[in-house]
């Protein structure tokens, strides 16, 4: 049976970490510099599997399992007020990629922490695939949660320290976590230049929780790890 958006979102909300172990997720459709805001996404069951790591004794033995490949694609334009989940559409906060430049100002986005969940105030945050980008999470503040997603500027070449500095400067009021390639495992995670990452956020009881999934780049590369940030 094909997977449905309602089923996938239900699993993602119930246990994001288990969800990231069981599904290979890509997030597409974003563009550099497009404002962060509530956006409508479509769901696609890619009807294909990749290999994924296992945990426990199976993991220690290096065994893998087939993991279904799914995709969320950001739709262009204003978010729909009532997206049709039965046809695979739903709303989420989209945190846009901003390119790392010396004059970068206010690259962060304030995710609302309060208020009832609705299509206008979703409890899901999505951001485009990370392929060298850095994602920063600020300290939880009253009513808001600052996050930022910054993409390397090709003109800066190998001066990667600049990217981390930019992210930290954008979160000057407090930093909870910074996910960057330089601090990750090169063998099994984002630290390898060829690997990619997907980050999602789930709001529970007025608090945002963030999770990352890493996988080998190039097509549907195998899942390598999943963890909470």
- Coarse morphology: globular
Number of strands: 13
Q: Which percent band covers the strand fraction?
A: 35-45%
Helix content: 10-25%
- The helix/strand series, from N terminus to C terminus, equals HHEEHEEEEEEEHEEEE
Low-confidence stretches: none
* Computed structural class: mainly beta
Give the CA-CA distance, first to last residue.
32 Å
The number of helical segments is 4
Strand order of the largest sheet: 1-3-2-4-7-11-12-13
Rg from alpha-carbon coordinates = 17 Å
The biggest beta sheet reads: 8 strands, mixed
Determine the mean pLDDT: 82
Q: What does the secondary structure layout of this molecule look like, with pairings?
A:
Elements lengths: L4 H10 L1 H7 L1 E5 L8 E17 L2 H5 L3 E11 L14 E7 L1 E3 L9 E4 L11 E4 L6 E5 L5 E8 L9 H10 L4 E5 L15 E10 L2 E10 L6 E6 L1
State the main characteristics:
single chain; 229 residues; mainly beta; eight-stranded mixed β-sheet; five-stranded mixed β-sheet; 4 helices; 13 strands; 41% strand; globular
Summarize the structure.
With 229 residues, the chain is mainly beta. Helix content is 14%, strand content 41%. The model has no long low-confidence stretch (mean pLDDT 82).
Walkthrough of the structure:
With 229 residues, this protein is mainly β. 14% of the residues lie in helices and 41% in strands. It has four helices and 13 strands. The chain has helices at 5-14, 16-22, 56-60, 161-170; strands spanning 24-28, 37-53, 64-74, 89-95, 97-99, 109-112, 124-127, 134-138, 144-151, 175-179, 195-204, 207-216, 223-228. Helix 1 (5-14) packs across helix 2 (16-22). It starts with a helix and ends with a strand.
